[in-house]
Every structure is written in C-alpha cells, then in structure tokens.
Amino acid sequence: xxxxxxxxxxxxxxxxxxxxxxxxxxxxxxxxxxxxxxxxxxxxxxxxxxxxxxxxxxxxxxxxxxxxxxxxxxxxxxxxxxxxxxxxxxxxxxxxxxxxxxxxxxxxxx
Length: 110
Known about the structure:
The chain is mainly α. It has six helices and no strands. Helix 2 (37-44) packs across helix 6 (93-109).
C-alpha cells in the first residue's frame, strides 16, 4: 500500500520530516522540559542527547564536523550543562534500576 508520502518529491519530504523534527524538539524543550531524559530512555529508548547525537552524525555524513558539545548546544538551544542545571532532576532508584535493566536487555540483544 502506497502512502501519500511516497508520492511527494524528495525535497518536500525532507522539509516535512525536518518540520516534524523541529516540532518534536520544541515539544521536548519548551512544552515538556519536565520530562527527564532517563524517562525518555526508559520508555522510548532515546532521549534529547540521542537526538543531538543523531544531528552530529547527520552533519558528519555531510562532511560537516560537529563536536558532541556543539551538537548538544544546537539541539538544546543552550550549553547542555545550563539546560541540565535548570531542568534535570535527580533520578529515583526505581528509575535508575529501570534504566540499568533496559541497558542490559539492549546489550544482550545487540
């Protein structure tokens, strides 16, 4: 079954995908900064840091050098340490245990 996206030219598809990424970024950074990265990792297997790393990897694929810190600042809109100090809370023992269990499960599947 073909979807509507299959009928769209590559440039328009890229624009739509980029807009969706920007909307996800805005949602996580402005509308739900209270959602912790560790909770995103536990529930979705990715977090804001993953998104910034994916930006860094996409830049590298295009021959653009971007450090981890530069990618994080591009994603977070500020230095990561500043965002962390403003928004990140201490993870509970239960949250840490869930994270550790998920990481062990991922390692055993990899």
